[in-house]
Design brief:
One of its GO terms (cellular component) is membrane. It is found in: Membrane. It is a multi-pass membrane protein. Pfam families: PHO4 (PF01384). Keywords: Membrane, Transmembrane, Transmembrane helix, Transport. About 80% of the residues lie in helices and about 0% in strands. The protein is mostly helical and about 325 residues long. It has one domain. Helix 4 (about 80-100) packs antiparallel against helix 5. The radius of gyration is 20 Å and the shape is elongated. The two termini are about 15 Å apart.
């Protein structure tokens, strides 16, 4: 580890971490609001306030299992120093900005994990990785969209069967109301899983500098700061990605929006409870594809969905490469 650094440097690194959290909220705002906006249940400006509120209060509902996984379960805490944290954050931020600019809904979570792995391995080689935690996270890349897809598909079947004797107007009106609940649950799951990743980064930074004593824990001020940064980012919105998520993959009705959000929310709740840092982007995309496929396979624009999958595949290696280059550049400039 580095020797304990002065307060100004520590504050700057924490600010960079919170900047990532803000960009995470900005980048992933679409995950929370794309369906409710595309079904015209809420206007975009109101939807972001709705999502930001539930993003912020998520810490009241969930524990800090995901934060602990990020803090101690991706790379060895003994490898962590200020340069590793800085390089990891730069790797994640650069990839987030690239994909946000292109309107690609990639995973901020996996960008951060890739950044940690790239920076950690640049310092200490392959032994830096905690393979038990990392393999669980990599498995979630496949499982979270699949579970979201299957749950949304199942929900469409159940809801269609229950609504078979109702008029289309009555179904539409009912699910316009229910979508407020499903969007709230999804935003809650988003805030609970995603904001905790930055909490873990800041906490392991404080721990590496001796500010947490002998025991790794997440200070309450870190929890509040990260939830606030995430909510503020969501308020700023990510309109390029909203268009891709809510309009380009498949056309959604309020009933389908409800099923997609509920399927995604259940997936996030399970993952957060188990301490698995999943991608909210992967989860909601899988759920949206699921409700589209339930109508008919041709209802899904598979070319758009496939381009999103390509972005998923390269996110961890791309952010890891940027983080590793950043780490080596800092070492050379020292």
């Amino acid at each position: 580890m580095d020797a304990t650094l002065g307060l100004p440097v520590l504050v700057i690194l924490i600010a960079v971490a919170l900047l990532f959290d803000f960009l995470n909220g900005l980048h992933d705002a679409a995950n929370s609001i794309a369906t409710i906006v595309s079904t015209r249940v809420l206007r975009p400006q109101y939807a972001v306030f709705w999502a930001a509120f539930f993003n912020f209060i998520a810490f009241l509902v969930f524990g800090l299992h995901v934060a602990n996984t990020i803090g101690t379960g991706i790379i060895e805490p003994s490898v962590v120093d200020t340069t590793v944290i800085f390089a990891a954050l730069i790797g994640a931020i650069v990839w987030n900005l690239i994909t946000w600019g292109l309107g690609i809904p990639s995973s901020s979570s996996h960008a951060l994990i890739g950044g940690l792995v790239g920076a950690g391995m640049a310092k200490a080689g392959i032994s830096a990785a905690v393979w038990s935690g990392l393999s669980k996270t990599l498995l979630a890349i496949v499982l979270s969209p699949l579970v979201g897809f299957l749950l949304a598909l199942l929900l469409v079947g159940i809801v269609s069967w229950l609504s078979v004797r109702s008029t289309p107007f009555a179904v539409d009106r009912a699910f316009r109301i229910l979508q407020f609940a499903s969007a709230s649950l999804y935003s809650l799951g988003h805030g609970g899983n995603d904001a905790q990743k930055t909490m873990g980064i800041i906490a392991v930074l404080l721990y590496s500098q001796g500010h947490l004593g002998e025991t790794f824990e997440i200070p309450f001020w870190v929890v509040l700061a990260c939830q606030s940064a995430m909510a503020l980012g969501t308020l700023m919105g990510g309109w390029r990605i909203v268009r891709t998520m809510g309009l380009r993959i498949t056309k959604l009705t309020p009933m389908q929006g409800f099923c997609a959000e509920t399927g995604g929310a259940v997936t996030l709740f399970m993952a957060t409870y188990l301490g698995v840092p999943v991608s909210t982007t992967h989860t909601i995309t899988g759920a949206i594809v699921g409700v589209g496929a339930a109508r008919r396979l041709s209802a899904v624009r598979w070319n758009v969905a496939s381009s999103i999958v390509y972005a998923w595949v390269i996110t961890i290696p791309a952010s890891a490469a940027v983080a590793a280059l950043t780490y080596w550049a800092v070492q050379i400039l020292r």
